[in-house]
Amino acid sequence: MPVADPLTTIGWEVFEALDLIGKAGYLQAPDGRENHVLIAQQFGRARLETLGALATRIRRISKDEAGLRYLRGIMAGRRAMLYFTQPSSRTFLSFCAACQILGIGIGEVRDTATSSEFKGETQEDSVRTFGSYFDLIVMRSQLGGLAERMAWVLSNTTRPVPIINAGSGKDQHPTQALLDIYTLQRSFETRGGIDGKSVAFVGDLARGRTVRSLAWLLTNYRDMTLYFVAPKELQIGSDILELLHRRGVRTVLEEDFAAVIPKVDAIYMTRIQDEWDAQPGASGKLGTDRYHFTAAHLAQLRPDAILMHPFPRRQEIAVEVDRDPRAMYWRQMRNGMWIRCALIASMFRREQEIESYDGR
User: Fold this and answer.
1) Domain range for residue 249?
2) Are 319 and 163 in contact (CB under 8 A)?
3) Is residue 1 part of a domain?
4) Annotated catalytic residue: which of 23, 57, 85, 91?
5) Of 47, 72, 78, 90, which residue is the catalytic one?
6) Average pLDDT, stretch 326-343?
7) Residue 313 among the catalytic residues
8) Is 119 a catalytic residue?
9) How many structural domains comprise the chain?
10) Catalytic residue (choose from 23, 57, 59, 173)
11) In the annotation, is 47 catalytic?
């Protein structure tokens, strides 16, 4: 962690009250790298391109045994705590694999019943304990804002360590947004990049933190059109729309999924997040099967369009669609491991070692 940490210059109550753009300014080190990764708003276009290029470089180095051995030495001796108190498989395993590629040792807490929180220890004390043993904390919680609070706490201790938000309530999932952008970068690299593309977000947009984070990152690109396709009860929040409009992004709210399919370059499907229902089963009464992508929809999808999904999947995409080359979600998942490798390596200033690898 760099000595110059802006979070040491602001009180928690003042930081908490800032809007997302205001908070972003307190999360970067003077060299532009991240002290903590908490929100999508802290990533600009140049940083996204740098991280994408570094992820591709790591992916290429890893293709042979010599490259893998080299990468495992990049951060040998460093340790990461994976503090996942909300259920996760892909994000947890992706971070686990990314750490292993870089030679980082791993500890984990996935159930507070097995930790001292069961005895009444506060989360602040738990995280400060992790900071005593580990060099990085990756945390996922159903409590919105918890990662921000813990980052401020650790920045203002005698042993500050970086925190990466791996999912925070219904608010943010910044590293999922990074892998989504990396997938779009790779998918459109021969088509002029992401600029000028149309992207449709489909499904549960009111409670989908992946949608909130990715939609913001897309404001870094020119001439974008974002379609939000959902029943009224699950439509994107006005707070996100306001941020998008302030950045000059065209938005279209739509309920007719079939009408949107032939118009867009990318479709981002999401599941219905009924775990957040105030009344069990409430989401099931909304007729959400209208927002499923079936094999019949493939004929409507542009030949060069792509289909994405952050997973887990229920019935939003028929399994028959998996064989279509435009189905990008399995590659998207693997991209998560590479972009998280790049993010961690960059936060610890290891880019030069990665770029200097000569293949011997």
Assistant:
1) 174-333
2) no
3) no
4) 91
5) 90
6) 97
7) no
8) yes
9) 2
10) 173
11) no
325, part of any domain = yes
Top-confidence residue, 250 or 278: 250
User: Per DSSP, what are the bridge partners of residue 165?
Assistant: 139
Contact 230, 236 (CB under 8 A): yes
Residues 204 and 115 in one domain: no
Distance CA 319, CA 176 (A): 22
Residue-wise DSSP of 176-239: HHHHHHHHHHHHTTTTT-STT-EEEEES--SS-HHHHHHHHHGGGSSS-EEEEE--GGGPPPHH
Mean pLDDT score, 65-89: 94
pTM assigned to the model: 0.92
pLDDT tier at 277 (50, 70, 90 boundaries)?
A: very low
What CATH number is attached to the domain comprising 261?
3.40.50.1370
Tens digit of each residue's pLDDT (9 = 90 or more) over 301-327: 999 999 999 999 988 999 999 999 999
In the set 119, 232, 323, 360, the catalytic residue is 119
From the list 23, 36, 59, 140, the catalytic residue is: 140
User: Does 323 lie in the same domain as 286?
Assistant: yes
**Mean pLDDT, to the nearest integer, of 167-177?**
86
- pLDDT value of residue 2: 43
Same domain, 162 and 306: no
Confirm whether 91 is a catalytic residue: yes
